[in-house]
Amino acid sequence: MSERPVFPMMEKEKEQQRELWQWTAAEMVSAIKSRKVSSREIVQSSLDRIEEMNPKLNALGEVFAEEALLAADRADQAVAAGEELGPLHGVPMSIKINSDQKGKATTNGVVAFKENIAAEDAPHVANLRKAGAIFVGRNNSPAFSYRWFTNNDVHGLTLNPWDPTRTPGGSSGGAASAVASGMMPIAHGNDIGGSIRHPAYATGIFGLRPTMGRVPSWYGAADQDQPLSVQTMLAQGPLARTVADLRLGLQAMAPFDPRDPIHASVPLLGEPLQKPIRVGLLKGSNIAKPVEAVDKALNEAAARLSDAGYIVEEVDVPIFEEAYKLWYLLCMEEFRQIMPLVEEVGDYGMKKAAEHYYAVAKDWWGPEPGLTEYMNGYARRGTLIAELQKFLEKYPLLLMPVSAEQAFEQDADIASVERMRSVMAAQWSMMAIPMLGFPAMSVPTSVENGLPAGVQLLGRRFREDTLFEAAEILEMHNTIQTPITPSW
């Protein structure tokens, strides 16, 4: 066996050698490229951890052990041959069950889609494959990927490694549970209503929703038109345990693919911001008052950034309240077109959640908003984007909640219409940001009440680099230790 490199130990590990599955993606790539350790060793360690953890957490709906090891062998051969290597060369990761991966079923958590075998990789999956990632499995999501709770009739219920009674988030809950528990250092997710940022927050890891157009994407059948909300609001991105790994994930996923109608090849690194950098602290209390743990995380993050030289000032940005409600007009009214299919093949949780979404949204948009409201909504969206861009001229970064609550109790969204109302309010930033198309990152900070707490950073369009810089400051003070082995 090849000699394994020794990297700096985390505080709790001190003299103890970490297992390969505990390494970051950046550490793995460095060791594989220098031939200090093989991709096969790393992938085998990941598979061993999956075998230990997945029966308990059900984060992965499928695992491809033999296929992954063969891919790892090819990765090692490429290193030996001196070939050009990608940013995730030889690193194990998983793809969400709602994205096409060649030869695999894109079930999207729906029994009727179990045999929906993809003929080719979606653009973002193709980019990850070109970057050298080794696909070890498919991470779970709710049916139709439309809940903040990860459960479906095909693959079952995914648990949060911190507490099985709490959601791991959704819809990329399988990705978050897998990364937080050490099954892999990085995983793929997508986000049209918080589906990267919320699972990362609920499990104590990092999640990046890039700017719309940053990562090429295609969602749904390759021969069918994509809905307008998907084209304008659905972003593909990585979930990881470190900021450095998020950087690698974005680098791997970003290259151009002609299948994406709005992709923009913008450099990953922009001009330095003028210092001192102003940060707007937005708590959103007029929409949903943050619980104590969330408020504490925001205040401590603000203090950390202030100590690092940022000027942090509390602000009020009313357009976010309007934007989150507008999401329920533009996305949910468009989704109404497939409600007959949901009623036919969807599971109980999806049907009930949709019923509750519409029940709350009708207070804002009426029971049956029409084409005029829909057209005016998109017109208003452009105005809100312009307003936020003007605001970000003074405050290039916003510090805000991911959610006003910590990880919800399982199935909170379908418990009652009133509980859904409070859940939707707590998740205001989950909907407002996709509506506006700006980059945002979920950043873990501490453990409160036995559950992860964290904050969200939002930046100017195509300035993910400014989010990484601020997140790295917060990362230095993060007291959440992952990967975590469930204690229950």
UniProtKB/TrEMBL annotation:
<dbReference type="InterPro" id="IPR023631">
    <property type="entry name" value="Amidase_dom"/>
</dbReference>
<dbReference type="Pfam" id="PF01425">
    <property type="entry name" value="Amidase"/>
</dbReference>
<dbReference type="InterPro" id="IPR000120">
    <property type="entry name" value="Amidase"/>
</dbReference>
<comment type="similarity">
    <text>Belongs to the amidase family.</text>
</comment>
<protein>
    <submittedName>
        <fullName>Amidase family protein</fullName>
    </submittedName>
</protein>
<dbReference type="InterPro" id="IPR020556">
    <property type="entry name" value="Amidase_CS"/>
</dbReference>
<dbReference type="GO" id="GO:0003824">
    <property type="term" value="F:catalytic activity"/>
</dbReference>
<feature type="domain" description="Amidase">
    <location>
        <begin position="41"/>
        <end position="467"/>
    </location>
</feature>
<dbReference type="InterPro" id="IPR036928">
    <property type="entry name" value="AS_sf"/>
</dbReference>
